[in-house]
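Lab notebook, bench 4. The sequencing result for the construct came back, and we need a structural model before the next group meeting so we can plan mutations. Quick request posted to the team channel:

Model the 3D structure of this chain.
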Amino acid sequence: MRSLRDFDDLRLSPYTGWTRDHWATLADHLLLSARRYASETHARVSFPGPPGGYGPDVDGLEGFARTFLAAGFRVAGEGGRDPLGLMEWYAEGLAAGTDPRSPERWVRLDEHGQAKVEAASIALVLHLTRPWLWDRLDAGVRERVVDYLAPAVGSDYPPINWIWFQIVVEQFLASVGGPYERKDIEDGLALLDGFARRNGWYADGAERSYDHYSGWALQFYPLMWSEMAAGDPAADSRRPVYLERLERYLNDAVHLVGADGSPLIQGRSLTYRFAAATQFWVGARSGTATPGPGLLRRAASGIVRHFTERGAPDEDGVLTLGWHGAWRPIAQSYSGPGSPYWAAKGFFGLSLPADHPVWTAVEEPLPVETGDFHLAVPAPGWLVSGTRADGVVRVVNHGTDHSTPGTNRTDSPLYARLGYSTATSPVLAGEHAAEPLDQSVTILDAGGRPSHRTGFETLRLDRLPSGTLVGASRWQAHWVDVETDGQDHGYGLPGTVRLGPWIEVVSAVRGAWELRLVRTDGLPLSAPDSPGGAAGPRPAPGALRIGGWPVAAAEAARGQEPSVSNGTAYSSVVAGAGLDLSGVISAADSSPLGPWTLVPWCATSAPALPGAWYEVAVHLGGQEPGSPPSVSWYGAAAARVTWPDGTEDDLGTISRA
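Done. Here's the predicted structure in token form:
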């Protein structure tokens, strides 16, 4: 592939240099590289690596359907111009994959649930490229495609984003005279309306599940379906609602991209990488008033450039299971070697012609590039802080755990941590992935195991007049003995539960600092032991332990000061009274960002005092932290914070009634 830097245009794209030529060249490179792994009839594209959790037949179907997305966007945006013969190549695969007599036939929708996912991509591309593919297929092939998609009708789909897969497939079938059920579509739309939350956000189902699916699925499919069903009163009446939600959501989403283009490292299916750009292209295609086209392209191009400059795709032009380069532990149990190609959704902008405003507008800076910002996002319960000096975006999480209040499951490192950022990854592998360490507030039991917080209650989410953000949550500390391996879909697992004390956490966030106030209501533990993995002095059972931001590093920590740096990111915890122990825990091969992850922590050496507030200042930034914020108490447990920039904030009475 020609070097992407050869196409740089800093006049049109002063922040990324990227233009439509970059995107088209990258898409072509991925598509041509994928052909090396295709079966003889092109029906299956089986990328190298061990089979995924659903087996090689599903892997091969994923490889076809997901690369087909990129091919479809590419040809649609060119108005049918197809010098690589993409439509002809994929037409051969369609013919063989839907042929029940072919040795390369696809897994059917009524044979494996994953086929329902891939069928939606196939239907969507057939819609977008209809004049150049569907209309030119042999009548027998068209009949077989309809027959392959038909089991979607009347079928059960999980009540999450998958409902859109059924709607898209049935809408396509309706458009070509195939079988469909109007009731399936209407019932699905009604269910999905129930996923809508404040400020245009969608939860992925009934749980507090907020992640990249909110953008690359739950914002993407409503607008695509309303295009597919244009002219239908039901679609035409819903489209303005979908557009309003998308616009409000995007005004939050642009705040969640770091200056280096990194998306927020949070939520499952992270191996889809630059699929995170999809939502911005949906905004462009739909004509949102804000953000404007220059900012939408800046966000999307920044994301894809972030990955191409850090090893994705690899030297063979393959998107491996990983984040930057290959890192297998990032995968969920459903992930196979073809799964990363849902990144092809990120090429959705190529469905827009070269003269579209999103390609001709001059790039505009991201919010984090224009100045420091503080944003409270109520739907996911996030306090979002961006700092221009280092380009880092941080989220302090008091609303998302992929569960519901009162449940007692294990914490998922992808959802239930107290913080996520564009510069750090939660600990995703090793012992501390199952037992919370980074960005956590835990009680240690007699065996040294930290407690979990999934099922917490959100108490507060606010932005003060000064701009400082304040959030709070409480939960009953619990320990879970998982009784089954279960399927890892990125969230916590059930098991036998032991309950402990209640924990309340209040976060005040300004710039690179969080002032974290913590208290418990008492502790029913007494037997002495030590926390697994802790170095230096050992807290007693029942001790309170607070973990800070995880920082990737090339080697393990050598000291025990609760401050670490890899030269570009600085993480520290500054403990207040009563938190008399501190240190750094080094976790090997625990995140995709480096061979080691270093986590500063502090703790009480004895059981936490019931009702006492403990204070810790938690920092993440691109520069050394300097002086931390301080807190003073007055009246009936009222708190006042003084920040390093001199700002003073009155947090008011923070005791629960």
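The mean pLDDT is 94.
Will bring this to the meeting.
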